[in-house]
Design a protein that fits this description.
CATH topology of the largest domain: AhpD-like
Strand content: under 5%
CATH class of the largest domain: Mainly Alpha
Structural class: mainly alpha
Length: 181
């Protein structure tokens, strides 16, 4: 059970914060998941939603790369809600079950090299808090500076979501895959 009651209805929001909630609903279709928790701090919710819109939908980074990074972040944080949402996204992006299994098991064995590169870069940032010169150069060479920063921002964005859902103990959505921790 979540530690905070998720704010999922416009009726739960004060009149002065309705514009923020309406903006989130307009861009995402609903108030749910981490956004339903961020609404306890509406100004932050609006800013996080704006960053999320860019990270999730508007940037130049390939959607598959975003999903691999998001799943790796969710696994490292053991964030059940984010894992449930992202495992579904991964399957829609045709990520192989073997790759999803590898992320779940925290390794990259048997994963295509281009997927393993994203997983390893993400894990390095989360566990060592930095990447080696070689890891940085490889990502830079593959994506260029702009998408390297987009990837790093994606990792940061999903880290913030994971910390929020973990602090508030938000459970996976209905029908979502449950990460065993």
């Amino acid at each position: 059970m979540a530690r905070l009651t998720p704010i999922i209805s416009i009726d739960q929001v004060t009149a002065e914060d309705r514009g923020i909630a309406e903006g989130i609903i307009a861009s995402r279709g609903t108030l749910q998941g981490p956004m339903s928790l961020f609404m306890y701090c509406p100004e932050l919710a609006g800013r996080v939603a704006d960053a999320g819109a860019y990270v999730r939908f508007e940037g130049d980074l390939d959607m598959r790369v975003r999903v691999l990074a998001a799943m790796t972040v969710a696994r490292e944080f053991e964030a059940m809600y984010v894992w449930g949402a992202q495992s579904g996204n991964a399957r829609r992006q045709n990520v192989a079950e073997a790759t999803i299994d590898a992320i779940r098991a925290k390794h990259a064995q048997g994963v295509p090299a281009e997927d393993a590169q994203i997983m390893d870069f993400t894990r390095a940032l989360l566990t060592k808090h930095r990447v080696t010169d070689a890891e940085f150069a490889a990502i830079r060479s593959r994506f260029g500076e702009k998408q390297l920063i987009e990837l790093t921002g994606t990792i940061g964005y999903y880290s913030m979501l994971c910390m929020t859902v973990n602090a508030c103990q938000l459970e996976p959505g209905e029908g979502a895959e449950v990460l065993k921790v």
